[in-house]
Design a protein that fits this description.
The protein has 351 residues and is α/β, with parallel strands linked by helices. Helix content is 32%, strand content 28%. The protein is built from 11 helices and 13 strands. The chain is globular. The N and C termini lie far apart (42 Å). Belongs to the GSP E family. Keywords: ATP-binding, Nucleotide-binding.
Length: 351
């Protein structure tokens, strides 16, 4: 099996196991391959140093990275087709003590699911549907890496597109999934296309709705707020642990409190939670065929209207039934979530 066939088999096998990421970790013995399944890393195989090095170089080549550059991180994307299905892969390299470490984020193409299908409690889709149909303003979706923000954002965009004929534009780093009907622009810092520069150009292209992959810096935050104030609906992700924390994060990025209060329509914090498998009687087996299509469902805390206004007037929001911890408690009480989830920490948990 040549190196290209090996890579394709590795990715296809990971997708079949519903892995979200593949990690290639070089060490003194070779290259360890691990897959993240339902938030937990599992060892898959170990490659020799020679084969691992060739695989990493091949990945960099086909994704369009600079093969000779090993001193700084690089991010690109590629597509693999198997059996008529397209798998979008985000490739990230990071310099290590031995070889470069590589992480592949996997996005098997499938039609965007309805919002109600994403959540443990389908009623949580209604506030998001209301937000995405706002005529203008700013909507923030926050949570840690791997919380399902991208899936939720694309489902919100398709919810809007189903009801209106509009110019929906996205600015992403990189474009993780190509979608018909959306005008998608990819960040290219070498060419001078940063989030801030791309957003300025995008505003001259007559958009109705703007999706920003992530608000990272003060300049991007300022332009996003100005776009929302000028009559556009702006949807973006933001790294914050809570929905209230997203508001404070925007103010930390230099956004005036009164301006933010004027444009912010809603703030949503999301987590993916392990769903109880009725056949396994607890934590679902990795190869369980009787479980639902998704072993994890989203729970979210949504601040809007009076609850959002409370964030601007009170520095600390007390726990309430609609908070993420409140949703987890409710899921445990109803038997949807195993009680062990409450003690878990890390990527596979709600905290």
């Amino acid at each position: 099996m040549d190196i290209s066939q090996k890579l394709q088999k590795m990715i296809i096998d990971a997708v079949r196991m519903k892995a979200s990421d593949i990690h290639l970790l070089p060490d003194a013995s070779g290259v360890l391959v691990r897959c993240r399944i339902d938030g937990v890393l599992h060892r898959a195989e170990r490659l020799t140093e020679q084969k691992g090095s060739r695989l990493i170089s091949h990945l960099k080549f086909i994704s369009g990275m600079d093969i000779s550059e090993r001193r700084r991180p690089q991010n690109k994307r590629l597509e693999i087709t198997s059996g008529g299905t397209t798998i979008y892969v985000r490739v990230s390299t990071f310099p290590g003590a031995y070889l470069e470490t590589v992480v592949l984020r996997l996005f098997p193409y499938s039609p965007s699911r309805a919002l109600r299908e994403l959540f443990l409690f389908p009623g949580q889709a209604a506030p998001l549907q209301k937000l995405i149909h706002s005529p203008h303003g700013l909507v923030l979706l926050c949570g840690p890496t791997g919380a399902g923000k991208t899936t939720t954002i694309y489902s919100m965009l398709h919810e809007r597109a189903r009801h209106r004929e509009e110019n929906i534009m996205t600015l992403e780093d990189p474009v993780e999934c190509r979608e018909d009907g959306l005008l998608q622009m990819e960040i290219n810092e070498k060419a001078g296309v940063t989030y801030a520069a791309g957003l300025r150009s995008l505003l001259r292209h007559d958009p109705d709705l703007i999706m920003i992959g992530e608000i990272r810096d003060e300049e991007t935050a300022a332009i996003a707020v100005r776009a929302a104030m000028s009559g556009h609906l702006v949807l973006s992700s933001l790294h914050s642990a809570t929905a209230a924390g997203a508001v404070r994060r925007m103010m930390d990025l230099g956004i005036d409190k009164d301006d933010l209060r004027e444009v912010l329509r809603g703030s949503c914090a999301q987590r993916l939670i392990e769903v109880q498998c009725m056949r396994c009687g607890g934590r679902c087996g990795r190869y369980c065929t009787g479980h639902t299509e998704s072993r994890r469902k989203a729970v979210c805390e949504i601040l809007m209207d009076e609850r959002l206004e409370q964030v601007f007037s009170e520095p600390v929001i007390q726990e309430w039934p609609g908070s993420i911890s409140g949703q987890v408690r409710r899921g445990i009480a109803l038997g949807y979530i195993p009680g062990s989830v409450w003690e878990l920490t890390g990527k596979g948990a709600w905290q």
